[in-house]
């Protein structure tokens, strides 16, 4: 079901009716190959509840407003906002929705902590944390130098503070609906999927529907890097968290997955198997590269990306190194790699 918007240029607001009181609005993400975030509008007895809100940009806001109008409601009528994770393409517009409606915003405590830190962080503190981290990962000085002199605000510095906590395993307070929070850390420490424990509207086999955020997407694998926390020295294992969270979703066996990007799909267990296989073969490939001792930076340079390392832009290299480190953590945890004693920056080798 596509409905036209009221915008002057006559463009159409992409709204899709998934049945059973669930619709989605395609909210654009400016200058991003992902294209859009699917914001789900779930009808409840107290008014519509949104799953995620989209990127904080005037055009994205206009699309969300037009989409809600196409759903027969408005931003002012929104009862609550449930956020799958803190990333700006999911949580960006939450503050504007709350301003327009007085809606509550719910998020898992681990991601709310990231939001709080982001709001309090002084940019200089953040830049020097990043510079130190990259140096420790073996980044060349030419890459790190700009961070040591960087000034000015960080993008997305003022995300809305959530006012409700999503408790894993519990039902959310959605009058007339059964929506249960499933904690799926990995992509972020507090990522949640939301399980709509109701019969599928087209009677598809399986258990209800799952709003999967970025955890399980039909055609791409989410970024798994380190959880960035300047004040926490715990050695986390985000890839290990992610793989365990995937198993949890296969177990649920939902009839349909409603992801935050791309398009809905069925057969969650098959998609989970693909993702597990993908990461297993990646880990195997990396342990092969580690026959010679490498820093995380050197490992990232040698890993397969969607283009040659020389063509990867600055910011994406930081993300790539974080991903290399997440895989190293997993290999170390599995006993398949270890740090070379006395090396600085630390180099890793397969065992
Ligand atoms: Zn994300
Ligand atoms: Zn996303």
Automatic annotation (TrEMBL):
Coiled coil: none
Location of region: Disordered: 1-23
UniProtKB keywords: Hydrolase
InterPro entries: Metallo-B-lactamas (IPR001279), RibonucZ/Hydroxyglut_hydro (IPR036866), Sec-metab_biosynth-thioest (IPR050662), WH-like_DNA-bd_sf (IPR036388)
Family annotation (SUPFAM superfamilies): Metallo-hydrolase/oxidoreductase (SSF56281)
Domain of life: Bacteria
Record's protein name: MBL fold hydrolase
Species whose genome carries this gene: Streptomyces spinoverrucosus
